[in-house]
Amino acid sequence: xxxxxxxxxxxxxxxxxxxxxxxxxxxxxxxxxxxxxxxxxxxxxxxxxxxxxxxxxxxxxxxxxxxxxxxxxxxxxxxxxxxxxxxxxxxxxxxxxxxxxxxxxxxxxxxxxxxxxxxxxxxxxxxxxxxxxxxxxxxxxxxxxxxxxxxxxxxxxxxxxxxxxxxxxxxxxxxxxxxxxxxxxxxxxxxxx
Length: 193
What we know:
Blueprint: E1 9-12, H1 21-24, E2 27-30, E3 35-36, E4 39-40, H2 45-61, H3 66-75, H4 80-93, H5 98-104, H6 118-132, H7 134-140, H8 150-163, H9 176-190
Parallel strand pairs: 1-2
Antiparallel strand pairs: 3-4
Helix pairs in contact: 2-4, 6-8, 6-9
């Protein structure tokens, strides 16, 4: 395997001296301009550009009907690229209470904006995926002597302690909606619905 120096980047401050001959051949990217999968790694020009675009979009959303504006906001402006920037962007153009933030993360069918919070979804998505592939995992790992999936058990316990939900005996539900429902119910209670 050989590195293609034209496709390699080194992220460093301008004043940083790079003496390694291999690293010197890489494209140099200033820390303020560093991106990963379209998201700014550090608050810098990329974030400023994204904030500028969102400010312009918000001004234009006021010119169209509410339903269309909501659809555009949810579908276009809450895309994964913006999801990465959300904590930094909102400091610049939007001030919401904790209760209002919580409501934005709720699905639309229960009164939210449908801008799902990735940190809350991660556990639920993992459990749904692990439950739906459990029999396949057992078949593949049948030859290996193991005491079971410790991570799955730990995450299952964590989900139960957070949600206080009761699990069916067997088989475990494979739909993400099952794992998501208790969290949505709790959030709805917190926003007073």
